Amino acid sequence: MTTEDVLIQADQVSRFFGPLRALDNISFEVKKGEVLGFLGPNGAGKSTTMQILSGNLAPSAGRVMISGIDLLDQPKQAKALLGYLPDQPPLYRELTVDEYLLFCACLNRIPASQRRNSLDVAKQRCGLTEVGKRLIGNLSKGYRQRVGIAQAIIHSPAVVILDEPTVGLDPIQIREIRALIRELRADHSVILSTHILPEVQTVCDRVQIINKGQLVLNDTIAGLQQRMRGEDLLVALRQAPELTALEAVVGEGNVTVLGEGRFKIHTAQLEQQAEALAIAAVENGWGLYELMPERLTLEQIFVDITTTETAAPESAEEVA
Questions:
Q1: Residue range of the domain that includes 272
Q2: Residue 191, in any domain of the structure
Q3: In the chain, how many domains are there?
Q4: Does 306 fall in a domain?
Q5: 273: in domain
Q6: How many Å apart are CA 163 and CA 143, to the nearest integer?
Q7: In this structure, are 169 and 285 located in the same domain?
Q8: Are 80 and 154 in contact (CB under 8 A)?
């Protein structure tokens, strides 16, 4: 990976609000063509991070680089490479879609000769071609979200930051917005802040979880799926043996009885134990009809990570 591939680099970023440490020395990168899912419980520092990355809030310490440009030292140049959709889209309901997007094109200093083309491209990508003459205030919430995304990409930024883009939408609108986000990765890097956990698995390449101002998970979706596999085996037997017979195969204390011939086997050696159980079931006529790794949900992983106690930050007196 070359430096040109890294479009956002947050380096040891912290943010204080008086004695409150909202962000605690976080560092991460966003690569070209990547959709990064950014998760965290309420009050974890997620919105603060989004505001800092978009240049709307200065960090108390650390720095943010946008395509190699320091966001604090050269804010105009850096922000020109960003598109941002906050959780409340900055729309003027009394304007038509075309009027509003032309206004956004002017704000982003797109040359007059290129504005109409930029508007048409943004409308086409966001499915707004047929509603250009309609007042924004008369559009459904799903279409207003599309307009919000269109204003974020109208100047073809390197990075698009989307904060809760599907909140309040119906299932069909959610699917449409998710499809649009997947399409954006072809020309942009995307940071997607969301509370909807399945959304991360659907559209993201990588996921980060922030908790109590600290990054507690940074993994690819493939790595996350490996975590979801868990370290337990689920076994179902038609002729359930005595507990001691199962423990003789997998080790004493490694079996949890679930009832009705079902058991959970705790093991760090899934393949070996699965093979041993299958052989024992056949030899003893236990009637094996299910043998599979336990599958954790993303929700379970999220809850486990965000409810685990992290190292206590410095006290307010030590910070001062």
A1: 231-294
A2: yes
A3: 2
A4: no
A5: yes
A6: 16
A7: no
A8: no
User: Do residues 194 and 151 both lie within one domain?
Assistant: yes
DSSP line for the chain: --GGGEEEEEEEEEEEETTEEEEEEEEEEEETT-EEEEE--TTSSHHHHHHHHTTSS--SEEEEEETTEETTTSHHHHHTTEEEE-SS----TTSBHHHHHHHHHHHTT--HHHHHHHHHHHHHHTT-GGGTTSBGGGS-HHHHHHHHHHHHHTT--SEEEEESTTTT--HHHHHHHHHHHHHHTTT-EEEEE-S-HHHHHHH-SEEEEEETTEEEEEEEHHHHHHHHT-SEEEEEESS---HHHHHHHH-TT-EEEEETTEEEEE-S-HHHHHHHHHHHHHHHT--EEEEEEPPPPHHHHHHHHHHSPPPPPPPHHHH-
Whether 312 shows a pLDDT value over 70: the answer reads: no
pLDDT-based confidence at residue 318 (cuts at 50, 70, 90): very low
Helix 141-153 and helix 112-125: axis angle, to 10°? 140
pTM of the model as a whole? 0.76
One domain, residues 290 and 218: no
pLDDT at 320 over 70: no
Query: Radius of gyration (Cα) for the chain, nearest Å?
Result: 25
**In this structure, is residue 108 part of a structural domain?**
yes
What does the CA dihedral 91, 94, 95, 96 come to, rounded to 10 degrees?
A: 100
